[in-house]
Specification:
Radius of gyration: 17 Å
Helix content: 40-55%
Distance between the termini: 54 Å
Low-confidence stretches: none
Order of helices and strands: HHHHH
Number of domains: 1
Shape: flat
C-alpha cells in the first residue's frame, strides 16, 4: 500500500477553521478529525440529502471577509 505524504496546511485554511495559523498541522488534523467524527448530517437522519448532491458532495470554506465585503459592495 502506497501512502500519500500529507500536504502542508495553508495558514488561511487553519484560520478559516478557527485554529491558530502557527499551530502544527498534525495537531490541527487530529483535532479536526475528532470534531468531525461527532457530526450528524440531516441526510443521515432523512436517508436523503435535502440540499441536493452538489451541496452534499462539495462543502466549501467561506470566502475571506474582505472579499465578501467587496463583492457585496459590487452587488449594491
Amino acid at each position: 500500500m502506497v501512502r500519500k505524504s500529507k500536504e502542508e496546511l495553508h495558514p488561511s485554511i487553519k484560520t478559516a477553521l478557527g485554529y491558530d495559523p502557527n499551530e502544527p498541522d498534525d495537531a490541527v488534523r487530529a483535532d479536526w478529525k475528532e470534531r468531525t467524527s461527532r457530526v450528524c448530517k440531516p441526510c443521515w437522519e432523512l436517508k436523503y440529502c435535502p440540499y441536493g448532491p452538489l451541496v452534499e458532495q462539495s462543502p466549501s470554506i467561506p470566502s475571506p471577509r474582505e472579499d465578501a465585503v467587496t463583492h457585496n459592495d459590487y452587488l449594491r
